[in-house]
Amino acid sequence: MSAAEAPGEARRDTAQYGVCGFLAVVGVLVIVDAARIQHIANSNDPIGPKPVPIVLGVLLLVVAVLYAVDVARGGTGEAEAGEDVDVTSAVDWRTVLLLIAAFVVNLVLIDPLGWVISGTLLFWGSAFALGSRHHIRNVFIAVALSLITFYAFAIGLGVNLPAGVLQGIL
Amino acid sequence: MDNLTNLLNGFGDVLTPINLLLALLGVTVGTAVGVLPGIGPAMTVALLLPITYGMEPVQAFIMFAGIFYGGMYGGSTTSILLNTPGESSSVVTAIEGNKMARAGRAAQALATAAIGSFVAGTIGTLLLVLVAPQVVKFAISLGAPDYLAIMLLAFAGATSVLGSSRIRGFAALLLGLVIGLVGIDKVTGQQRLTLGIPQLADGIDVVVVAVGIFAVGEALWVAAHLRRNPGTVIPVGRPWMGKSDWRRSWKPWLRGTAYGFPIGALPAGGAEIPTFLSYATEKKLSKHPEEFGHGAIEGVAGPEAANNASAAGTLVPMLALGLPTNATAAVMLAAFTSYGIQPGPLLFQREPKLVWALIASLFIGNLFLLLLNLPLAPAWAKLLQIPRPYLYAGIIFFASMGAYAVNAQPLDLLLLLVLGLLGFAMRRFGLPVLPLIIGVILGPIAERQARMALQLSNGDVSGLIGGPVAYVIYAVILLMIAWPLIAKLRRKIMTKDVAYSAPQ
Lengths: 170, 504
Fold this sequence. Notes:
The complex is a heterodimer. Chain A is mostly helical. Chain A is built from five helices and no strands. Chain A has helices at 16-36, 51-72, 93-113, 115-129, 135-156. In chain A, helix 1 runs antiparallel to helix 2, helix 3 runs antiparallel to helix 4 (115-129) and helix 4 (115-129) packs antiparallel against helix 5 (135-156). Chain A is flat. In chain A, 35% of the residues are buried. Chain B is built from 18 helices and two strands. Chain B has a two-stranded antiparallel ribbon with strand order 1-2. The longest helix of chain B has 50 residues, at 91-140. Classes of the chains: A mainly alpha, B mainly alpha. At the A-B interface, helix 1, helix 2, helix 3, helix 4 and helix 5 of A face helix 7, strand 2, helix 8, helix 15 and helix 16 of B.
């Protein structure tokens, strides 16, 4: 929560133009999608499903432009601080990509192999990505967490978690 | 009197051994998760949603009430002992609270926060009992155009939070509204933005959005910037207060409550403004102004009470109008909708049992919180030392589990990842997340109200603007939008009175 760096000394954050581009692309996407919708309107619903997305799409384009103007004038958004966040450091892409990999492994394996296995891989992989090198201990924690959550939630509370290949064993 | 009977019935429903156990469990896990660094109240509620999936609505709500207050209190413990607040509402608590802790008065800081939260929470909940039914009475007389105006007011309030960039807030709001569009249009059955994917026809579940933006986005963001040496945790014994601490605390508690509840209850309120106001007031009124900045107990007592009272205040628009005004209320609303319950004026008529059980459990949860926190504070402080890889791996683990469990489809996990990356980018570029989540929740409702208003006026656009209530609200919205301009003018006129600048 330190005072923001004075705008004068801050480097121009040009990556922000990417945000403007993203907003514009979403705006166009929304408009194109809305154009495809048939115009249905009757006395119960005088405007139909079309106008709202079109208005939103146009607003997105307008905001994209205004945002770009703000950036060009030197405006920056302050990156979010937090207990464990060191905002001054550069983004550690290796960690982020490894986390995404662990996430995708779970996403792909959860239905075929079941939560206990995919969840174990997810936790172990995430802990590894975040720099923990106690591999054996991590495996124990990951397996324990997955088993506990499976029994507590899927079996105890009836939450939807797949048993997968371990069906009948668990 | 009616309300009192209802409330007593609510207590009657809650006071069974199993329900009390649930309330206790809710408070305990709410605090435990809320204490963890990097996890604010909104994420606490989002991550703990799955616990309630298998329960009856009443029991789920009893637990939510506990999680809600527990998460709030846990957050302030973190900011006192670690000095890096997870969210803007506890910024002020951290200023004096951490200074007190460093000066060896952590026990007193935690005690005044705990007792102040209890006092403010209890008074706030009492006020909720008095005010909410009145708001409902008023709200029932409102028509579609008035509701539309209230929704727009909530949008304006969320995007123009004190001291942050409006254009970024507005961008976040629009993204949320677009996410809310996805799915089949309820009136005509037309698919919008579903990209031909059948699972998207029902729309993107709000729970998935909340967990993705708050939990996964936050975990990825922290992972990208993880501090190699986490801040030092200040050891703490059992919280207690001496006589002079009590004498210096009780007035700030009450004044904080007086700021917190009304501002929290406004459709565009929030907790930042009352906590800042309370801090400024205590500094002005204190007999020990020299202590401010070095750990003044008033500076913890007042803002902490304001924070909790405003949390109770936000429940007024949330329950009575279906209007979430902060992130935690937004996630709670998402949870309600996943039970097929739509908060709003009709809720009090259709589900009185549910509403009053919820309110009764707020009282009970608050009491448990006090009983639990005073003895358990040292244990909570230990939680702050959890190894960070496990903490954030755990967040991703539970977020994935919760999101998958909503509909049991892997596609939701993909959405969760995409939303998590969006949350990551928003944190990187300083886009606030609150407008997005409010857009997702209220967007579809606002559209429905607009179309209903037009139906009543036979398509005449003037039907959107509505009657006197709507006029007043639009005037307020204009004022809010024009505020920076007015403030600039005012500053020019009286340059000598330098106001404090909000640390954002």
